[in-house]
Each structure stands twice: as C-alpha cells, then as structure tokens.
Amino acid sequence: MTKMADVNGIPYEQSELYRMRHTLAHVLAQAVLEVYPEAKLGIGPPIQDGFYYDFDLGTAENGKPRTFKPDDLPQLEARMRTIVAGKHDLRCREVSAAEAQALFADQPYKLELIDGLAQGQADADGNPLAEPVVISTYRHDNFEDLCRGPHLAHTGDIPVDGFKLMSVAGVYWRGDEKRPQLQRIYGTAWANKRDLQRHLRMLEEAKKRDHRTLGRQLEIYMMDEEIGPGLPLWLPNGNILREEIAKLAREMEDAGGYQQVSTPHIAKESLYVRSRHLPYYADSMYAPMDRDGSRYYLKPMNCPFHHKIYASKPRSYRDLPLRLAEYGMIYRYEQSGELFGLMRVRAAQQNDAHIYVPEAQFEAEFMAVMDLYRHYFRLFGIDKYVMRLSKHSKAGLGKKYVDNEVMWLKMEELVRQTMIRHHIPFVEAEDEAAFYGPKIDVQIWSAIGREFSLATNQVDFAQPASFNLTFTNRQGEEEMPLCIHRAPLGSHERFIGFLIEHYAGDFPVWLAPEQVRVIPITDEQNEYAVQLTRQMAHLGIRAHADLDGSRMNAKIRAAQVMKVPYMLIIGEREVREGTVSLRRRDGQRQQGVSPLAFISHVRERIEGRLADL
RNA sequence: GCCGACGUAGCUCAAUUGGCAGAGCAAUGCUCUUGUAAAGCAUAGGUUAUGGGUUCAAGUCCCAUCGUCGGCUCCA
After folding, report:
1. How confident is the model at residue A1 (pLDDT cuts 50, 70, 90)?
2. Which of A347, A454, A465, A469 is the most buried (most CB within 10 A)?
3. Out of A186-195, A267-276, A441-450, A532-541, which region has the weakest mean confidence (pLDDT)?
4. Nearest to A409 by CA among A443, A433, A441, A442
5. How large is the ipTM?
C-alpha cells in the first residue's frame, strides 16, 4: 500500500478520521473477544477507507483453524455499536517492556510485537525503526491493547451509523506465508452516515466500470473454463483494441529506431538455465514438456531469445544502441488465487523490447524510454500513476535476485541519479526488483482500487554476462553492454483492462471497436444506410448499419449500451436531403449534417488520435 | 498456493422448512413502419459447473473436483 491521501490538507495519519478508524479497530477487537474469548490478537490499523483487525481464533472441534463465518459480521457489528454507545474514554499509558509482557502474557502475537519494540528493531508492520520507541497501551471499557495511537478521546465520538464491517479474509501473520494464517475482518468507517452511504455508492459505481463487467458488456474478451484459468479469448471488438494499440506502438518504435523481431513461444531448458529464469523464476513458469529427451518450456519472457539474436553476430559500438522489439506472447504460471480478469493472466502479449547499450550511453537511452512512456500516458490521458524505483533486498540475494550486491547498488544508483537529474518524481521500494536488475515500474490502480504495475523499464546487468554479450568498443576492446528491458504498455491484457476502466468503456474514436453506427428509422432508409456505411468503411472508418426490425429508440439504446461514439439517424428527411442526423455518445445531437463533413470530422479524430468526440 | 464465499438459460436474477426449475433482457418468427436510451404477440432456450453420496424425493443437505469472486502471498 502506498502513502494514503491527505484529508482536508492534513496528513491522513493526523486526521480525525484516522483516529476514529483506529479506535474502531479496537472496538472490533473487543467485540471479537466477547464472542471468542480465547482469540489471539494480531494487529489492527486504520487503512485507506477504514480499518482491519487480525485474529487467531484457535482450533475448531474438527481440528482445523477456526474461522469467521459471514454470519459473524452483523453480530459483531451490533456488539460494536453497543460498545460505541457506551461512550468509554480511551486512556493511554506508557509501560515498560516487562510490564507489557506481563499484560499480554497470553497474547503471543503481541509478545512478538513487544519484543520487536523493546529491541527497537521493528514497528507493528515489521519495518525497522531508527531508534527505540516508548511502549504504550490504550484502554477503553474493559479492553486494553498494545498501541502507539493516536485515538479518539472517547468512543462516543464514533458515529454509530458511519461504519460497516465489509469482509473476512485469511492473511498470513506479518505477510509471511510460512507463518500462521490469521483471520482478518475489514471494516469501512466514515464521519457520518451520509459519507458511508456515499462510499458504498461509489463502490457500486466502481463495479460498473470494472473491466470484467464492461469487458462482457462490450464484448471485448471472454474466459472459458475448458480453456483454462487466466487464458483470455479476445473477441472481435477486443482484437480491434489490440491491433490499434499495436499499430500505435509500432509507429513509435519505428520512429525510435527499434527493429522488430519474432521468436518462438517455447525453448529448451538450457536456454532458461543460462538466462537464470530456471533458478530464479521457475515458480512462475509452466511445467516443461518432454520430447525426445529434451525439456521445453513456454517462455515467461522474451529476453533470452533477444539475447540470442544479439549474440548471433559480432557487434560493434557503431551498432549500439541495438533495440529489438517484439510483440511476444508470454506464459506465466501465476498463482491461481492471483488471477484477476484481464489484469492478471497466464498468457499475455507484451509490447516488449530489449535495448543493448554501452554503459556510457545508458542515461540517454533510459531517458528516451521514459520519454516514450510519458508520451503514451499523455496520449491516453493517464495522470493518476506513481513511478517506483523497484530495488532488490539484501535478504533476497541469491534467492530472488542474482547474487551480486555491488552491481545491484551500482545500478540502483545509476537509475536513481538518472531520474533525479531529469526531475522525474518517483518513490523507492525494497524487494520489488526483477531478478536480473532494478527497474522503474509505473503503478496504477484498477477501478476497485487494486494496485498494478503497468509500464516497466528495467536495467539488466546479469543476463548480458550469462549470454557473453559483448561489443567491440572504439578502442578495439571487448565490452559488455547493459540491457534495458522495457514494456511501456505492459501487456496488452493488463493495458486494455486498465483502459476499459480508465475510459469507463467510452473509448476515444480511434480506439473504439465500432466508431459509427448508422440507424435507419424505418426499413425504407436501409438502402441509404448501407450506402453510407460502405462509403465510410472504404475510408477506414469502422461503421455498421443497424438493419434490425426493432424501433429507432431501441436501436439507439443498443448503440448507447455498446458505447459507440457516433450514431447517424437516418429518416425520410435525411434521405431526401442527402444528410445525416448525428447523435453522439454523450447525447449531443445535430441535424442536417452533410455526410462528407461528418466523415472528415471522424477521420480527423482517428488520424490525430484525438480524445474528443 | 492459503483463508472465506459463490456457481440456476447467452446476460441479470427468482425458486417457502428438501416436494412439478421460473422471470426480464438477448435470440428466432410474425405484426407494427416508427424521429433521438427498451413496440406487441409467439417460439425456442436447462443433465441447476462436474463427479459421487444421503433421501420416497436434492437447485436446496454431505464429500470431492473444476471455475469465479473478496482478501493474503506474488506480479506485466
């Protein structure tokens, strides 16, 4: 989770809302303890729109961990309201580590937190702390919790009808899948009933712009159980989006000095051993296919293939930067629980390229890629994103990351300084790098608020070495290039999934699968409608005539539901005058329009990739 | 992969405590020939995700598998 937004100009962490949510988390814990007195408490912080609390409910009669049932939520919520209505004061007190240990003697998770605090090593999230902190508790009614605060003065300040328990989830203690799984209850909380209802309505609205809902409605893609999880099929409308985006990317790459290549979807095991995908990335790869004693893998990335192309002949510094682009299909065995519509799939087409560049030219080339990103983002009107410098972690060296700390630090500094010199705002994140090097990821959010990496710009110092990639420099010496892996549009799947939500299905004209729908009022006008449609199709406009026997209003509705940018209504008058009546997706209308004027208006929007209708 | 929930017609959803599987939209046919977001009538559409089990009787209860969803872990 990235930093949360300010509330009325005050940092969220200092806002009244934050304290109220924090206090509600305590109230929830108290309510849970009333129902399950033996429950062990995890942590319970405020989050984006509310709060959560983690519990270990112990073991049930059947020997499995006890879990919350959905029926528990209304019951707990009712208890919470009763507690809130008790108007209990919250009292903070500072305690020594020994006192805290005595106080929470039967709370193993709290004891672990206390140990961390006592040693001045980690906060409740497990993040390292600079200096030892004071241990404090907050108490209200009969419930006392280890907590650094802040809280409301008393529970009477909590709006009784401003909160709601939302869902239950299993979560690993401290986010570590090797540790016990706790039960988390999520709640949302607001200053008053109206704000809560507005939030709930917003969630409903977000669902309507969810790419899974719109993807079906607009007939963009489908999934099929028999084909497999995470393996989308692109319907004709969706494929138009793919082709338009590919065309755009192709233009940009031609202009940027890229060369297009194509490579197979599978390769032998030894390739991935050399690239180090097998040691570092095997969990994300499909199981190998055995044929005649060789093992073949579906490719999870295009890079090893491009490295082979690079290595296929001696390279001179004059050839560099060498930019190899491929719209390659990649296959990744993502964990089943992670699949998510188009945003997280197992077969994806990447707008991929690998740029081989002497270290001396790295900055210019890296910036050319960043400029390309910003060009795309401007074109699509994407302004809500965060650039993230994704770094290695010391603990992951040799496990998740190639084991060369010197190079990691050097490359991270190289990227950091490049970004700073060019005044590009970014955040830094530990333990988010690719196994072969650090990267700049562009983080975006789905309609329902889930965070994803979209574009990525990566530095690879590892694979050029594994593949013995070299070039002859000006001095006649063999030198190793760096490799930049870049995917400004991420994958087609995720990018289009994101675009659907970004535009709420109202694609700009150049992207719209159907650009114009011609609607004759009666079948007397069918012939004119077909003639207009042919004329437009001839000029590269995606136009269709709706010759269905239904009424005009129904045809308009059908076109609106499909979010077709332009509707041309054709009645007796239009045929007589040789005009069209234009209705735009946004409801604006214009009568007596000349077909030629309309066509040139549309073509202008298509050719200029303009955002307006 | 883990925790929880869910799976009924192409889509959105019904179906009392276990008791004859239904509606709207979409599709198809016919009638209407219509002026800016849904005309009327009719027809067709289902092994209730799949496989077992309990029962006189299962969409409904139990088990397993597959899939989807909310999270966790992970990631383009």
Report:
1. very low
2. A454
3. A441-450
4. A433
5. 0.93
When the candidates are 3.30.565.10, 3.40.50.300, 2.160.10.10, 3.40.50.800, the CATH number that belongs to A516-607 is 3.40.50.800
Token couple for A229: 């999880």
A216-502: CATH, from 3.40.190.120, 3.30.930.10, 3.40.630.10, 3.40.50.300: 3.30.930.10
Distance, Å, A505 CA → B30 C1': 36
For A77, counting Cβ atoms within 10 Å of its Cβ (0-12 exposed, 13-18 middle, 19+ buried), the class is middle
Kindly report the backbone phi and psi dihedral angles of residue A375, in degrees, each rounded to the nearest multiple of 5, phi listed first.
-60, -50
Nucleotides in B strand less than 7 A from protein CB: 1-5, 7, 11-12, 26-27, 30-39, 66-76
| Distance of alpha carbon A605 from alpha carbon A307, whole angstroms | 40
pLDDT(A227) > 70: yes
Order across the sheet with A266-268: list the strands.
A266-268, A294-298, A289-291
Spell out the alpha helix ranges (H) of A468-565: 492-502, 526-538, 552-561
Indicate whether A383 pLDDT > 70: yes
Distance CA A70, CA A49 (A): 20
pLDDT exceeds cutoff 70 at A465 = yes
Instruction: Please check the confidence at residue A75 and state whether its pLDDT lies above 90.
Output: no
Query: Is the CB of A223 within 7 Å of strand B?
Result: yes
Flag whether pLDDT at A146 surpasses 50. Answer: yes
pLDDT of residue A2: 41
Query: Which phi and psi angles does A560 have, rounded to 5°?
Result: -65, -45
According to the CATH classification, is domain A12-199 in 3.30.980.10? Answer: yes
